[in-house]
Amino acid sequence: MTTVRLPKNATDCHCHVFGPVARFPYADDSGFKPAEAPKEALFALHDQMGIERCVIVQSGCHGFDNSVVVDAIAARPGRYLGVALAPADVTLADLRVLDTKGFRGLRFNYMSHLAHGADEAQLRALAPKLADLGWHLQIHMEDQLIEPMSPVLASLPVPVVIDHMGRIDASRGRNQPQFEALLRLLDHDYVWCKVSGSERASRQDPPYADATPFARELVEHFSDRVVWGTDWPHPNYRAAPPDDGDLFDLLPQIAPTADLMRALLVDNPARLYGFKENI
Protein backbone atom coordinates (compact mmCIF):
# COMPACT_ATOMS: atom_id res chain seq x y z
CA MET A 1 0.00 0.00 0.00
CA THR A 2 1.15 3.54 -0.73
CA THR A 3 0.58 6.83 1.06
CA VAL A 4 1.03 8.89 -2.12
CA ARG A 5 -2.05 10.97 -2.96
CA LEU A 6 -2.66 11.06 -6.69
CA PRO A 7 -4.41 13.85 -8.59
CA LYS A 8 -7.88 13.33 -10.01
CA ASN A 9 -7.83 11.36 -13.27
CA ALA A 10 -4.37 9.94 -12.52
CA THR A 11 -3.46 7.56 -15.34
CA ASP A 12 -1.53 4.30 -15.47
CA CYS A 13 -0.20 4.49 -19.03
CA HIS A 14 1.43 1.07 -19.17
CA CYS A 15 0.07 -2.20 -17.86
CA HIS A 16 -1.05 -5.55 -19.24
CA VAL A 17 -3.75 -8.17 -18.80
CA PHE A 18 -3.13 -11.88 -19.32
CA GLY A 19 -5.96 -14.36 -19.73
CA PRO A 20 -7.88 -16.06 -18.31
CA VAL A 21 -6.40 -18.52 -20.75
CA ALA A 22 -9.60 -20.54 -21.06
CA ARG A 23 -11.19 -17.48 -22.67
CA PHE A 24 -8.16 -15.68 -24.09
CA PRO A 25 -5.55 -18.32 -24.98
CA TYR A 26 -1.90 -17.47 -25.43
CA ALA A 27 -0.53 -17.40 -28.95
CA ASP A 28 1.05 -20.67 -30.03
CA ASP A 29 4.25 -18.92 -31.07
CA SER A 30 4.54 -16.75 -27.97
CA GLY A 31 8.02 -16.57 -26.50
CA PHE A 32 6.59 -16.52 -22.98
CA LYS A 33 3.42 -17.70 -21.28
CA PRO A 34 3.03 -15.83 -18.00
CA ALA A 35 0.76 -16.55 -15.07
CA GLU A 36 -2.75 -15.29 -15.58
CA ALA A 37 -3.34 -11.64 -14.65
CA PRO A 38 -6.97 -10.92 -15.50
CA LYS A 39 -8.64 -7.54 -15.70
CA GLU A 40 -10.31 -7.91 -12.31
CA ALA A 41 -6.91 -8.01 -10.58
CA LEU A 42 -5.79 -4.91 -12.49
CA PHE A 43 -8.98 -3.06 -11.59
CA ALA A 44 -8.51 -3.94 -7.92
CA LEU A 45 -4.97 -2.53 -7.94
CA HIS A 46 -6.10 0.69 -9.59
CA ASP A 47 -9.02 1.14 -7.23
CA GLN A 48 -6.76 0.60 -4.23
CA MET A 49 -4.11 3.04 -5.44
CA GLY A 50 -6.40 5.79 -6.74
CA ILE A 51 -5.79 5.29 -10.46
CA GLU A 52 -8.86 6.45 -12.42
CA ARG A 53 -7.63 6.07 -16.00
CA CYS A 54 -5.52 3.47 -17.72
CA VAL A 55 -3.86 2.44 -20.98
CA ILE A 56 -3.56 -1.33 -21.37
CA VAL A 57 -0.78 -2.48 -23.68
CA GLN A 58 -1.36 -5.68 -25.62
CA SER A 59 1.27 -8.25 -24.73
CA GLY A 60 3.17 -10.53 -27.07
CA CYS A 61 1.89 -13.58 -25.20
CA HIS A 62 -1.51 -12.97 -26.81
CA GLY A 63 -0.03 -12.16 -30.21
CA PHE A 64 -2.06 -10.07 -32.65
CA ASP A 65 -5.38 -11.12 -31.13
CA ASN A 66 -6.18 -8.01 -29.10
CA SER A 67 -9.42 -9.46 -27.68
CA VAL A 68 -8.15 -9.61 -24.11
CA VAL A 69 -7.52 -5.85 -24.12
CA VAL A 70 -10.80 -5.14 -25.92
CA ASP A 71 -12.60 -6.98 -23.14
CA ALA A 72 -10.86 -5.01 -20.39
CA ILE A 73 -11.46 -1.65 -22.09
CA ALA A 74 -15.15 -2.46 -22.51
CA ALA A 75 -15.48 -3.14 -18.79
CA ARG A 76 -14.48 0.44 -17.93
CA PRO A 77 -15.56 2.47 -20.97
CA GLY A 78 -14.02 5.89 -21.40
CA ARG A 79 -11.63 5.40 -18.51
CA TYR A 80 -9.53 2.63 -20.08
CA LEU A 81 -7.91 2.72 -23.52
CA GLY A 82 -5.41 0.48 -25.27
CA VAL A 83 -2.27 0.09 -27.34
CA ALA A 84 -2.46 -2.77 -29.84
CA LEU A 85 -0.15 -5.26 -31.46
CA ALA A 86 -0.59 -5.83 -35.20
CA PRO A 87 1.49 -6.84 -38.22
CA ALA A 88 3.53 -4.05 -39.77
CA ASP A 89 1.41 -4.28 -42.93
CA VAL A 90 -1.88 -3.88 -41.05
CA THR A 91 -4.51 -2.11 -43.15
CA LEU A 92 -6.00 1.25 -42.30
CA ALA A 93 -9.42 -0.43 -42.25
CA ASP A 94 -8.27 -2.85 -39.55
CA LEU A 95 -6.77 0.01 -37.55
CA ARG A 96 -10.07 1.88 -37.78
CA VAL A 97 -11.84 -1.11 -36.24
CA LEU A 98 -9.35 -1.12 -33.37
CA ASP A 99 -9.85 2.63 -32.97
CA THR A 100 -13.58 2.14 -32.40
CA LYS A 101 -12.73 -0.36 -29.66
CA GLY A 102 -10.60 2.13 -27.75
CA PHE A 103 -7.07 1.65 -29.10
CA ARG A 104 -4.88 4.71 -29.59
CA GLY A 105 -1.49 3.37 -30.63
CA LEU A 106 0.51 0.46 -32.01
CA ARG A 107 3.48 -1.13 -30.28
CA PHE A 108 6.54 -2.82 -31.75
CA ASN A 109 9.07 -4.79 -29.74
CA TYR A 110 12.81 -4.76 -30.40
CA MET A 111 13.80 -6.99 -27.50
CA SER A 112 15.73 -10.23 -27.87
CA HIS A 113 13.16 -12.21 -25.85
CA LEU A 114 10.20 -10.94 -27.90
CA ALA A 115 9.15 -10.99 -31.55
CA HIS A 116 11.18 -8.68 -33.76
CA GLY A 117 9.71 -5.32 -34.64
CA ALA A 118 9.12 -3.63 -37.99
CA ASP A 119 12.01 -2.51 -40.18
CA GLU A 120 12.58 1.07 -41.34
CA ALA A 121 10.63 0.72 -44.58
CA GLN A 122 7.69 -0.82 -42.75
CA LEU A 123 7.66 1.94 -40.14
CA ARG A 124 7.69 4.63 -42.82
CA ALA A 125 4.81 2.92 -44.64
CA LEU A 126 2.83 2.48 -41.44
CA ALA A 127 3.25 5.97 -39.99
CA PRO A 128 0.77 7.74 -42.33
CA LYS A 129 -1.93 5.24 -41.35
CA LEU A 130 -1.35 5.99 -37.68
CA ALA A 131 -1.32 9.71 -38.39
CA ASP A 132 -4.67 9.41 -40.16
CA LEU A 133 -6.19 8.14 -36.91
CA GLY A 134 -4.31 10.43 -34.55
CA TRP A 135 -2.49 7.40 -33.13
CA HIS A 136 1.08 7.08 -31.89
CA LEU A 137 3.84 4.52 -32.36
CA GLN A 138 5.12 2.83 -29.21
CA ILE A 139 8.65 1.39 -29.26
CA HIS A 140 10.04 -1.15 -26.80
CA MET A 141 13.74 -1.58 -27.49
CA GLU A 142 17.00 -2.55 -25.89
CA ASP A 143 19.13 0.42 -24.92
CA GLN A 144 21.87 -0.26 -27.47
CA LEU A 145 19.28 0.31 -30.23
CA ILE A 146 18.39 3.86 -29.19
CA GLU A 147 21.21 5.46 -31.18
CA PRO A 148 20.83 3.47 -34.44
CA MET A 149 17.02 3.71 -34.44
CA SER A 150 16.89 7.42 -33.64
CA PRO A 151 17.12 8.80 -37.21
CA VAL A 152 14.03 6.97 -38.44
CA LEU A 153 12.04 7.41 -35.23
CA ALA A 154 12.71 11.14 -35.12
CA SER A 155 11.61 11.58 -38.72
CA LEU A 156 8.21 9.86 -38.56
CA PRO A 157 5.09 12.05 -38.87
CA VAL A 158 3.48 10.63 -35.71
CA PRO A 159 4.22 10.79 -32.00
CA VAL A 160 6.73 8.11 -30.97
CA VAL A 161 6.64 6.83 -27.39
CA ILE A 162 9.76 5.14 -25.99
CA ASP A 163 8.95 2.45 -23.44
CA HIS A 164 10.54 2.10 -20.01
CA MET A 165 13.13 4.89 -20.38
CA GLY A 166 14.71 3.04 -23.29
CA ARG A 167 15.53 0.08 -21.03
CA ILE A 168 18.69 1.80 -19.80
CA ASP A 169 20.91 0.17 -17.19
CA ALA A 170 21.15 2.60 -14.26
CA SER A 171 24.33 0.98 -12.98
CA ARG A 172 26.24 2.47 -15.92
CA GLY A 173 25.76 5.97 -14.49
CA ARG A 174 24.29 9.23 -15.68
CA ASN A 175 26.78 9.88 -18.48
CA GLN A 176 26.36 6.54 -20.23
CA PRO A 177 26.03 6.76 -24.04
CA GLN A 178 22.64 5.07 -24.02
CA PHE A 179 21.02 7.70 -21.80
CA GLU A 180 22.67 10.51 -23.74
CA ALA A 181 21.23 9.00 -26.92
CA LEU A 182 17.78 8.91 -25.32
CA LEU A 183 18.04 12.59 -24.37
CA ARG A 184 19.03 13.51 -27.92
CA LEU A 185 16.10 11.55 -29.31
CA LEU A 186 13.73 13.33 -26.94
CA ASP A 187 14.95 16.69 -28.21
CA HIS A 188 12.61 16.01 -31.14
CA ASP A 189 9.16 17.41 -30.41
CA TYR A 190 7.24 14.32 -31.53
CA VAL A 191 9.11 11.90 -29.27
CA TRP A 192 7.74 10.95 -25.86
CA CYS A 193 9.04 8.72 -23.06
CA LYS A 194 7.44 6.45 -20.50
CA VAL A 195 9.20 6.87 -17.18
CA SER A 196 8.02 3.42 -16.19
CA GLY A 197 10.38 0.59 -15.40
CA SER A 198 12.58 2.06 -12.66
CA GLU A 199 12.73 -1.45 -11.22
CA ARG A 200 13.98 -2.74 -14.58
CA ALA A 201 16.59 -0.01 -15.00
CA SER A 202 17.79 -0.48 -11.43
CA ARG A 203 20.36 -3.03 -10.35
CA GLN A 204 19.44 -2.49 -6.70
CA ASP A 205 16.66 -3.57 -4.38
CA PRO A 206 13.75 -1.21 -3.59
CA PRO A 207 13.56 1.77 -3.52
CA TYR A 208 15.65 1.56 -6.71
CA ALA A 209 17.69 4.61 -5.78
CA ASP A 210 20.07 4.23 -8.72
CA ALA A 211 17.25 4.55 -11.28
CA THR A 212 15.15 7.36 -9.82
CA PRO A 213 17.48 10.21 -10.93
CA PHE A 214 17.13 9.14 -14.57
CA ALA A 215 13.34 9.25 -14.40
CA ARG A 216 13.38 12.59 -12.60
CA GLU A 217 15.67 14.17 -15.18
CA LEU A 218 13.38 13.02 -17.98
CA VAL A 219 10.34 14.45 -16.20
CA GLU A 220 12.01 17.77 -15.44
CA HIS A 221 13.54 18.26 -18.90
CA PHE A 222 10.65 16.96 -21.01
CA SER A 223 7.73 17.69 -18.72
CA ASP A 224 5.15 17.91 -21.53
CA ARG A 225 6.15 14.60 -23.20
CA VAL A 226 6.45 12.07 -20.41
CA VAL A 227 3.90 9.59 -19.08
CA TRP A 228 4.10 6.96 -16.35
CA GLY A 229 2.90 3.41 -15.87
CA THR A 230 3.08 0.55 -13.41
CA ASP A 231 3.98 -2.16 -15.96
CA TRP A 232 1.70 -4.45 -13.92
CA PRO A 233 1.94 -7.45 -13.62
CA HIS A 234 5.65 -6.98 -14.42
CA PRO A 235 6.21 -9.72 -17.03
CA ASN A 236 9.69 -11.09 -17.67
CA TYR A 237 11.06 -9.39 -14.57
CA ARG A 238 14.45 -10.62 -13.35
CA ALA A 239 13.18 -11.59 -9.89
CA ALA A 240 9.93 -11.85 -7.94
CA PRO A 241 7.51 -9.13 -9.11
CA PRO A 242 8.10 -5.80 -7.36
CA ASP A 243 5.68 -4.42 -4.80
CA ASP A 244 3.44 -1.97 -6.63
CA GLY A 245 3.30 0.19 -3.53
CA ASP A 246 7.07 0.68 -3.80
CA LEU A 247 6.65 1.90 -7.38
CA PHE A 248 3.90 4.34 -6.43
CA ASP A 249 6.09 5.65 -3.62
CA LEU A 250 8.67 6.71 -6.23
CA LEU A 251 6.28 9.19 -7.84
CA PRO A 252 7.06 12.18 -5.57
CA GLN A 253 10.76 11.65 -6.28
CA ILE A 254 10.22 11.35 -10.03
CA ALA A 255 7.79 14.29 -10.23
CA PRO A 256 8.67 16.44 -7.19
CA THR A 257 6.16 19.27 -7.70
CA ALA A 258 2.38 19.29 -8.00
CA ASP A 259 2.61 20.71 -11.52
CA LEU A 260 5.01 18.00 -12.67
CA MET A 261 2.89 15.30 -11.06
CA ARG A 262 -0.25 16.55 -12.78
CA ALA A 263 1.52 16.78 -16.14
CA LEU A 264 2.91 13.26 -15.80
CA LEU A 265 -0.25 11.56 -14.57
CA VAL A 266 -3.13 13.61 -15.99
CA ASP A 267 -2.45 16.27 -18.61
CA ASN A 268 0.08 14.46 -20.79
CA PRO A 269 -1.92 11.20 -20.93
CA ALA A 270 -5.03 13.18 -21.84
CA ARG A 271 -3.22 14.78 -24.79
CA LEU A 272 -1.47 11.65 -26.01
CA TYR A 273 -4.36 9.22 -25.72
CA GLY A 274 -7.35 11.53 -26.05
CA PHE A 275 -9.10 10.91 -22.75
CA LYS A 276 -12.27 12.95 -22.44
CA GLU A 277 -12.17 15.56 -19.70
CA ASN A 278 -15.43 14.77 -17.92
CA ILE A 279 -15.33 10.98 -17.76
UniProtKB/TrEMBL annotation:
Coiled coil: none annotated. It holds the Pfam family Amidohydro_2. GO terms for molecular function: hydrolase activity. InterPro entries: Amidohydro-rel, Aro_Compnd_Degr_Hydrolases, Metal_Hydrolase. The keyword DNA-binding does not apply. Keywords: Hydrolase. Gene3D superfamilies: Metal-dependent hydrolases (3.20.20.140). This is Amidohydrolase 2. It comes from Pseudorhizobium banfieldiae.
